[in-house]
Amino acid sequence: MPTEREGGRPARALVLDDESVSERPRRExxxxxxxxxxxxxxxxxxxxxLILLSPxxxxxxxxxxxxSSLPLGVRSVEWLRTHHMNWFVxxxxxxxxxxxxxxxxxxxxxxxxxxxxxxxRLHRMTGRxxxxxxxxxxxxxxxxxxGLWRRTGPPIDGRPPVLVTTxxxxxxxxxxxxxxxxxxxxxxxxAWYPGRYEPPNAPVRxxxxxxxxxxxxxxxxxxxxxxxxxxxxxxxxxxHTNEPLGNGLATLVGYRDGRVDILRWNGGPNAxxxxxxxxxxxxxxxxxxxxxxxxxxxSEWGFTLGNAVRVWRTGVGIDRRGxxxxxxxxxxxxxxxxxxxxxxxxxxxxxxxxxxxxPTLISYAHHHGLVATEVVPNPMQPPTRYLVPxxxxxxxxxRRPRGPINVPFK
Length: 410
Description:
It contains 5 helices and 20 strands. It has an 8-stranded antiparallel sheet with strand order 3-4-5-16-15-17-13-14, covered by helices on one side. A 5-stranded antiparallel sheet has the order 6-20-7-18-19, with no helix packed on it. A 5-stranded antiparallel sheet has the order 9-8-12-10-11, with no helix packed on it. Helix content is 21%, strand content 27%. The radius of gyration is 31 Å and the shape is globular. The protein starts with a strand and ends in an 11-residue tail after the last strand. With 410 residues, it is an alpha+beta fold. It folds into 2 domains: 19-61; 122-399, no CATH class. The relative contact order is 0.14.
């Protein structure tokens, strides 16, 4: 009830319920108890999380501490792919490469990247008819040297064993350049080498690089195909099966007599003794001179990015004379890569590795030692790749020896 203060002014009396007075400390004690229980629970929750994640941390740390030719970021992505996180990498890369997708049109190039050596004078060349024909330009007004072959080193028996060239690939994208190499089947011998970790089950790996006693005849090297986990691509070398060969897959093979070819494999899990080596990578993309009608943007042609965006892609093909062709270009789909190889003269072709970390084409000169030159520009890989141990498998192109062909590991 209101009361009177001195001076006649009313004052408000504070009336407290006895029950409220007794309940307040009780509520405070309850809140304090709950907070204390929560604080005690957090260490156990954290410990449980750490226990659940400890195998993952251990696996990641152990993988990163292993010897590798790759930077930490690339190895981390590869670790995620092999530990059920392909979907996450796929989504992240799709966003990243989608933002970097090339825009149609734009200014024309004024010159192509230089590759190879200066073109020799025609009257000094013999057997010119054995050269591949120039690649027909896509553009009405070709740039200087576009599609014209250039040698990478001195001739062997009057003809260069390795030729390289560049050309622009699409009218809608005038700044995209393809890098192409051609290897003379009569003057070269190809060998396929396992890397440190790919293929995963190779019984014989060798030095994971070009053997020292073979470097005197080394002409070129280039990257291998998709990893086994991405396509169940089998391989074999010198009669040893690494991963079982899969029927229906495109297979680059090297025969004991020195020939190379691309087959659509239907021969069972093991390669016959007549093969020096075999390397698979997805189904063919060119067959009988025509694009595979099954080419599309599905995961069949590259689960990593789903082929929904354009990325670096590489591939190999066989021309009508049995010579090998290698091609690499940025901002490609599997369909545009197939067209590049078809235009370069391939009658059978297959896709090799994709994404910017992997495209590698290196030529070698022998001037007071071995001099390596990157034909395909790749800031993520040095020119010395394959002269030092590498994680991935690769192909070496040698000067042709006498006698049967095998893969020399020493």
